[in-house]
């Protein structure tokens, strides 16, 4: 066999054994030519189905809320996903408050900035302590935009100070990012949420107002 014939034969065998770029040897191809993965020992069969299901099911919401406390209260937001009947499937809290359960940082924070946290605080999800709320329903693009802003705000909010960088100011930044008008930050939390609802939601806004705290 000549050298040239041997080279051609080896080249043909290589093409038969190794797939060319763009082909797949596992799974099958969809109608548009894209590869469709098949189930394996390391890939659960319901991964793709679950992802598509999550994209289709549920609505989204954000709730501006205040709660009672031993002091004058606290303002924060709850956001998450609802089912078709309006039941809450999952939810998360964002709010600015001193990074301690001790009363000392809270007192000092009326004079100087103190380290802050931006997540859930004790009593936020207990409806017994809710003093006011305004519930807003969002579509998915709106929700994703709001959550992205909240994440950014949480990452940059390092301190709490009662007269400048308080819980009302934190929630107000979220509301303004959504295009809402906001009241002054020196109101009591219950008054702040009620005023926020009145300024933007009108008389028929979905909300709650409890007795004065």
Provide key terms for this protein.
globular; 33% helix; 213 residues
Helix and strand pattern: HEEHEEEEHEEHEHHE
Distance from first to last alpha carbon: 98 Å
Poorly predicted residue ranges: 1-57
Using only C-alpha atoms, the radius of gyration works out to 27 Å
Q: Would you report the number of β strands?
A: 10
Overall outline: globular
Strand content: 15-25%
**Individual helix count:** 6
| Coarse structural class | alpha+beta
Please give the share of residues in helix: 25-40%
Largest sheet: spatial strand order: 5-4-3-8-10
Mean pLDDT: 80
Major sheet attributes:
5 strands, antiparallel
Assembly state here? single chain
Describe the secondary structure blueprint for this structure.
Layout: H1 3-17, E1 28-29, E2 35-36, H2 47-56, E3 59-67, E4 74-82, E5 88-94, E6 97-98, H3 103-108, E7 114-117, E8 130-138, H4 140-156, E9 159-160, H5 167-177, H6 189-200, E10 207-209
Antiparallel strand pairs: 1-2, 3-4, 3-8, 4-5, 6-7, 7-9, 8-10
Helix pairs in contact: 4-5
Verbal overview:
This protein has 213 residues and is of the alpha+beta class. Helix content is 33%, strand content 23%. It is built from 6 helices and 10 strands, in the order H-E-E-H-E-E-E-E-H-E-E-H-E-H-H-E. The protein has a 5-stranded antiparallel sheet, with helices on one face. Strands 6-7-9 form a 3-stranded antiparallel sheet. A hairpin with a 5-residue loop joins strand 4 and strand 5. Helix 4 runs antiparallel to helix 5. The longest helix is centred in the last third of the chain and has 17 residues. It is globular. The termini are far apart.
């Amino acid at each position: 066999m000549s050298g040239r014939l041997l080279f051609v034969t080896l080249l043909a065998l290589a093409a038969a054994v190794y797939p060319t770029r763009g082909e797949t040897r596992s799974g099958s191809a969809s109608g548009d030519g894209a590869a469709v993965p098949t189930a394996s020992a390391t890939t659960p069969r319901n991964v793709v189905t679950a992802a598509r299901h999550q994209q289709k099911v549920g609505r989204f919401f954000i709730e501006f809320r205040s709660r009672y406390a031993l002091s004058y209260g606290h303002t924060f937001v709850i956001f998450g996903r609802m089912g078709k009947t309006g039941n809450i499937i999952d939810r998360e809290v964002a709010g600015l408050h001193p990074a301690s359960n001790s009363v000392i940082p809270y007192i000092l924070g009326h004079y100087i900035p103190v380290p802050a946290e931006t997540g859930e605080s004790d009593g936020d999800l207990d409806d017994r302590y809710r003093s006011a709320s305004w519930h807003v329903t969002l579509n998915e693009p709106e929700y994703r935009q709001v959550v992205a802003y909240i994440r950014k705000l949480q990452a940059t909010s390092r301190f709490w100070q009662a007269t400048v960088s308080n819980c009302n100011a934190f929630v107000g930044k979220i509301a303004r990012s959504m295009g809402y008008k906001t009241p002054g930050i020196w109101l009591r939390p219950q008054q702040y949420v009620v005023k926020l609802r009145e300024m933007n939601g009108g008389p028929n806004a979905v909300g709650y107002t409890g007795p004065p705290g």
